[in-house]
Amino acid sequence: MGKLTAKQIDSLSTPGTYEDGEGLRIQVKPNGKKYWVLRFQLAGKRREMGLGAYPAIGLKEARQKSSDRRRLLRDGIDPLQARNTERAVQLAAEQQRKIKAITFQDVSADYIEAHRAGWKNVKHAQQWTNTLATYATPIIGDLATNQITTEHILDILKPIWASKAETASRVRNRIELVLDAAKARGLRDGENPARWRGHLDKLLPSASKTKRTQNHPALPYSELSRFMRALDRVEGQSACALKMTILTACRTSEVLAARWSEINLKAKLWLIPAERMKAGKAHGVPLCETLVTLLNGLPRINDSSLLFPGARMGKPISNMAMLMTLRRMDQKDLEDGGKGWRDNNDRIITAHGFRSTFRDWAAEQTNYAREVCEMSLAHVVANGAEAAYWRSDLLEKRRCLMSDWADFVSLKK
């Protein structure tokens, strides 16, 4: 039977230790706070363990806790070690609950936000979001990352592995990166189920065996002069943007986002800043006389720095505008008894395809060095040690090449 009563404990105010019996005691601290302590002996050593504060732990509960600990002692179990083990189990369980609460969708959103500033293409984050939302989220979006298995990854990839090889490859890579980030955060361990080399490559055919290269439909250069005569009869911004795309052999995105501040008509040079280039390097584009005349004739829209401003403030016309121009020209040519503006596989040409038209012409109809032609397309022409010694952008040679291209396009040669 215990020595203390609840009324006695309430009245205790003098600092000290007050015995209840069988090792159970209550300690009164100088600040007036009271704590339950169990004193016991194990393997010849006297030890103490706290059982909690009073009145949160009342007399009855303290005696029950003391009785439970003494029962462990009779079985040869250290109650301190048992308590620590119990706490570790509870902590692990709580950690698992927290991990399960953080889903793949959460981790992928954090990953995208963390890397957004480092991606040079502002659309890259949206592409990440869209591809994962379309293909990954329906299957693994609500799963904790440590629950995602190889089977889940295969369920995502198999339906698109052959039909959308490029997309499937990007989806796989993005899932792998997100799961690597989850592992770095301690949210999962073990092998990454989206890893290709040494894992998925044993379960799926390589992309090279399933992916058929789909080049942009390009007009044969022998048809180009006839096409340009037809394009001259088309009015509007998209037609002008298309002419600039052809005469510069630039990417459509580079042309559409062109700004007047980048254009030096006197020097006949267009300097595209690094952040808008695929290779992340500023690119100087020589402007031929035909293009200088075209640019001089473009209207300057108030409050817009863009060459080809669209309907939305601060935004250029869309790539779809040029594509629709090409489709209408194709239809018009067919109606006039022509064969339409098609590539050699009878596909309607695209604006980007004119880069291929230019490259084919340069390779087959000129003697310009490969480096000059590739630099005109803003392609990387050297890697590794060779790149370290490559300083020139071959601007003057490229100016001659683009002048010859403009003459070919306009039938001057």
How confident is the prediction overall: mean pLDDT? 86
Distance between the termini: 116 Å
Q: CATH H-level name of the largest domain... which superfamily?
A: Intergrase catalytic core
- Total strands: the figure is 7
User: What structural class do helix, strand and pairing data support?
Assistant: alpha+beta
CATH domain class name of the largest domain: Mainly Alpha
User: What is the string of SSEs from the N terminus onward?
Assistant: HEEEEHHHHHHHHHHEEEHHHHHH
Tell me the number of structural domains: 3
Instruction: List low-pLDDT spans.
Output: 383-390
Radius of gyration: 37 Å
Strand order of the largest sheet: 1-2-3-4
Shape: elongated
Major sheet description:
4 strands, antiparallel
The amount of beta strand, in percent, is 5-15%
Subunit arrangement of the protein: single chain
Q: Can you tell me the CATH architecture of the largest domain?
A: Orthogonal Bundle
